[in-house]
Amino acid sequence: MPQHAANLATRISGRVVPRGKVVAWWLGGTGFIFKLPDGTRVCIDPYLSNIVNDIFGIARGFPAPITPQELDVHVVVATHAHEDHLDPGSIPQIAAAHPATRFIMPPSATSRALGWGLPRQQVTAFSAGSEFTIANATLSHAPARHDAGIPGWETPDAMGLFIRIAGNSPEPGFTIYHTGDTEYDLRLRHLRTRKPDVAILCINGAGGNMNAHEAALLAWQLGAQTVIPMHHILWDRNIGGDEATLDPQLFADTYRKLGGSGRVVLPEIGAEIELN
Fold first, then answer.
1. 216-248 pLDDT, tens per residue?
2. What are the E-state strand segments in 126-203?
3. What pTM does this model have?
């Protein structure tokens, strides 16, 4: 049986993470769960419902690998207010099942979450310069430029995220960068100064996101040791027309042609990725 065929919540709970490493699991789209050596768990953009089908008639392309009730993490980050990132079909259920979980998101997303009944003490608004520390990890805001081109769904405060894991001698610690949804932007290549060891980049090329070529360029510019494409698997069909670049191998091949020398991980839904 493949390692990711067993219950994801059980695997996350039972996984012992060695010092100097982080283990990640991909939920599809831009959704990831990260587990640190001290047991701290951070989740970014969990889309676990099928609410976008109700709103736009676009169904998810696979069953959610974990339920909102099973998503037992210390922090949930929503990178912006779109429903496949701030999921109204999941976020209130996660908060109800896990009252100690903290929710971090941009201000426009915060107002929605509070309107759904999340307790104020569980929700933290994030904007440029914001940081949040939990155990040995510091979460910090990164810029993004995400224009989906749909009136009423503007997200001027969309963001990316850095997760900096402090080292324990002799391990130096390391930094994970998650782009969230974003177009290629000159501000992003300057994030190289924050020295990400891992870069996780959207590649779907539609709805205000980088395509595989742009993401590969950014990955090369950032100089990360590990690069991971995302947002190429979520829906039951290609919703981007000719703009969409949904083949992660195109990202990998372009990155190599540019001279990228880092490890390329092509993620699978629910499968484990060990990062260091």
1. 999 999 999 999 999 999 999 888 766 778 899
2. 131-134, 137-143, 159-166, 173-178, 198-202
3. 0.96
